[in-house]
Amino acid sequence: MKEVRTYTLASEIEEEVKKIRELFVENAMVCRMIEEGEEFDFLDSRGQSAIIHDIYTGLEKVFKKIANDLNGGIPPGEDWHYRLLHQMSLEIKGVRPAVVSKESYSLLKKLLAFRHLFRNIYGFELDKERVDELNITIQDKGDKIIKEIIDFANLLRRRGENEEGI
Fold it and tell me: Rounded to whole angstroms, how far apart are CA atoms 66 and 46?
């Protein structure tokens, strides 16, 4: 019966990754506009920021699913977002490997910090250069994060095929 949970988690991860990839397509359009030197008005900057926000939110949904199914739940406390992200960079012996590499963890910390900022300031206070930089960084390194998450889902499927769960 445990393998059903493993397969379900893998499928849920893959479903969420499909949605995140759509956000990466939107992000690629923004990056083309940045590279072409297009001027952004305040609505464009807010839109760019919302894409970054949504990308991290989608990734965090994946991490929450993993934490709930494999780690015994989401970490308690006000700083649970940061602790959850940190846990995803750790191997938990006998339970699961790290979901993301230390390199990806470094970028994800920046995205989480930005999402927190985005939720807690007025849109006109956003730093356009920082937003542009994050969009370009996501474009350059986001595929690596997605690959790591998909590799993790594939590992779950293989374990489900080979054993009684994880």
Answer: 30
Torsion sign across C-alpha atoms 13, 56, 85, 79: negative
Residue (of 149, 104, 91, 82) closest to 74 by Cα position:
82
* Long-range CB contacts (within 8 A, 24+) of 70-74: 70/9, 70/95, 70/96, 70/166, 71/95, 71/96
CA 84, CA 78: separation in Å to the nearest integer?
Answer: 11
Q: Find where tokens 């690596």 sit.
A: 144
Q: Which residue is associated with the tokens 């699961």? A: 96
pLDDT digits (tens, 9 = 90+) for 35-80: 888 777 767 778 889 999 999 999 999 999 999 999 999 999 999 9
- Give 93's Cβ-side CA count (13 Å radius): 0
The tokens describing 17, both together, are: 């990754």
Q: pLDDT band at 3, cuts 50/70/90? A: low
Distance CA 99, CA 96 (A): 8
How much helix, strand and coil, in percent to the nearest 5, is found in the chain?
80, 0, 20
For the whole model, what pTM was predicted? 0.89
